[in-house]
Design a protein that fits this description.
Blueprint: H1 5-20, H2 29-37, H3 50-62, E1 66-69, E2 79-82, H4 84-87, H5 92-104, H6 109-116, H7 125-136, E3 143-146, E4 156-159, H8 202-235
Antiparallel strand pairs: 1-2, 3-4
Helix pairs in contact: 1-2, 1-3, 1-5, 2-8, 5-6, 5-7, 6-7, 6-8
Length: about 240
């Protein structure tokens, strides 16, 4: 089973929001579409309509990777949740790492630790490597290590649950702080307009990533709260 890139993105978003904004989880279609198209913590950044997200949900449901939560307890619309823990027997650190790979493509151990930290506790790079080894040895083959490309100092890891995005998928360029496949900076959120990016130490880079991720999480919470408010208004006939 290999999912489409769209289904992989939707699955990663469900995991991310479960771990970062559990009070808003499971997600409505509107909240899930917003999460799928957000500009931070995504590579590539895409612009998918509700119809595409619904098709991705149907694909995930056909592969028994999600469940539909029918309206109840004052909620007026259907919601969706992943079942990676049940299907693959994964705990939160493992499906958190898988979600980060689904949302941002191939990454080094250090990048994965920094970007997954807002979802789960991974004390060291060694812990990340140990969890990835378990995912790689899983009977369904969930991740793999990529050969080091010329000029790269570290190995990268890639999820193999979903197909990679085509180069034309990005709507606004690569995500902030993530290298492009060609090795350029591709940083759309940087303060400089040209020339080489300034050198940043690994520690400062991780701090910056953590701040960006925290900001993204807060934005996600606000978007989800707006969706819930709209649902409440519709339920009250407003």
């Amino acid at each position: 089973m290999t999912l489409s890139p769209e289904a992989g993105r939707v699955l990663g978003c469900l995991v991310e929001k479960q771990l970062t904004t559990p009070q808003q989880y499971p997600l409505t279609l509107n909240a899930l579409t917003t999460a799928t198209n957000q500009a931070t913590n995504r590579d590539p950044v895409v612009d998918l309509g509700d119809d595409v997200v619904l098709a991705a949900l149907d694909e995930l449901r056909g592969n028994h990777l999600i469940r539909v939560v029918l309206p109840s307890h004052g909620r007026s619309v259907k919601r969706y949740r992943h079942v990676l823990d049940e299907v693959y027997g994964l705990d939160a650190p493992r499906y958190g790492l898988l979600a980060t790979l689904l949302l941002r493509g191939p990454q080094t151990l250090g990048e994965l630790r920094a970007r997954t930290e807002r979802m789960v506790d991974l004390p060291s790079v060694g812990d990340v490597q140990a969890e990835l080894a378990v995912l790689a040895e899983h009977p369904d083959g969930l991740v793999r290590s990529l050969p080091r490309a010329p000029g790269q100092k570290e190995d990268r890891w890639q999820q193999i649950v979903a197909s990679p995005w085509s180069p034309s998928a990005a709507s606004t360029g690569t995500d902030v702080g993530h290298d492009t496949p060609s090795g350029g900076t591709g940083d759309k959120g940087s303060a400089w307009s040209g020339g080489p990016a300034p050198t940043v130490t690994e520690g400062r880079h991780d701090e910056l990533e953590a701040l960006r991720d925290e900001l993204s999480s807060l934005r996600g919470e606000v978007a989800a709260l707006r969706v819930d408010l709209d649902d409440l208004r519709r339920g009250l006939g407003g």
